[in-house]
Specification:
With 185 residues, this protein is mostly helical. It is built from seven helices and no strands.
Length: 185
Amino acid sequence: METIGNRLAVILHRTWWMLLLRGLFAIVFGVLTWVLPGVSLAALVLLFGAYVMADGILGVWSAIMGRKEHEHWWVMLIAGLLGIAVGVLTFLAPGVTALVLLFYIAIWAIATGVLQIVVAVRLRKEMRGELLLILAGLASVVFGVLLVVQPAAGALAVLWLIATYAVFFGVLLVMLALKVRSVAA
């Protein structure tokens, strides 16, 4: 056990500067997110578009693959198509304001949440654990409603949370790098 710890210490000691760079990059990322929220939001818009598009494609695929097994496969198909549509809208209008993006996200979250609840109710006779899908659907609906009620606060809060995490994480890595550098190899 002692030799594993010693080997890890040696590796960290030799590469302390990589920890330092990672920490500095995280701090710079966090500060830039605070200072340039518009650019950060644009990147978040593209990431959201990619996620929703992939989620929709996989949802459509799952629905089509299961169409012969269940008569309500169309519910999953609608949820998947909705995801694809929101993804396409996001990519077609990347300069969309935070308010519009949040309404896209809110509508998507509410609609898919409701559809997940519908699927869970249909599943309750076929399997156990449908409560988890109901809870996931409720979480999506609540999230969507909160974004509709407080859209500007929602966008800014997400960006600040990401920025704060990055700076905090970066400071910890910088502190670790300096500590590891001072440890004898």
